Amino acid sequence: MITIDKLAYNSNLRHKDPSLKSFFAISILLICVIARSNIISLVTLVLMGAITLLYNNISLTYYLKLLTVPFLFLLLSSVAIIFNITTYPLDLFSLEFGSHYLAISSNSLFFTINLILTAISSISCLYLLTLTTPFTDLLSVLKKIHCPFIIIELMLLIYRYIFVLLDIALTIQTSQKSRLGNKNFKTSLYSMSQMLSVLLIRSFKKASTLYDSMESRCYNGEIHVLNETYEICTKDILVVILIEVFILALAILV
């Protein structure tokens, strides 16, 4: 079980209705994306982070580590936006290359900052949902909104195979480490290539075994998963409505 999945099952919001949590997270995300305001993004980021930390047994340091990977990806992808190649210098920064300039304008800088803040605040909304809601509960929400069954089934199988492949990879890595398979860079590359090739072969075998086991249990093209029943508390609905109204009013005023 991966760490995020463990956190979801151990969350204090684990037994809250997943439909309500999904509505709350997605609606705040939509408001944030539509508003495209730095203030709304910062408020959303702080609010979603505070709720996640308050109801999950994780530290601020670990939460920031979870945000580091998407943040670094956003920084790298924003390079193409913030820099411009022009035939004339721009107001903020210009570096001459022959008859052209590698330049940064104030508009491109502000647009990039706004884009990063909007994206990272949207990710915080999704973290709130994924760190408090197990994957099977999310699938039940998709069923309620009549998502195509083939998509739900593919998501379930892919999710299942993440754990299968991780387990196989960790077993192979442990075996390689016990035989000094990572003693230097060259050996590490060779061990990695060996692990990937074995992982591919074993994944095909696991897939065949899984299908055979499903066939032996009268698989008819539909995977059935037991879903829990949750009661929606009036207090939870009121809290969600108050936060939604606050964010929406702030977006309108700003």
TrEMBL record:
Broad class of where this protein is predominantly found: membrane
Membrane spanning residue stretches: 23-55, 67-88, 109-129, 149-172, 184-204, 237-253
Coiled-coil parts of chain: none
Record membrane topology: Multi-pass membrane protein
Keyword terms of this UniProt record: Cell membrane, Membrane, Transmembrane, Transmembrane helix
Pfam family for this entry, one: CbiQ
Source domain of life: Bacteria
Subcellular location(s) per record: Cell membrane
Protein name (Swiss-Prot/TrEMBL): Cobalt ECF transporter T component CbiQ
UniProt source species: Clostridium cibarium
Gene: cbiQ
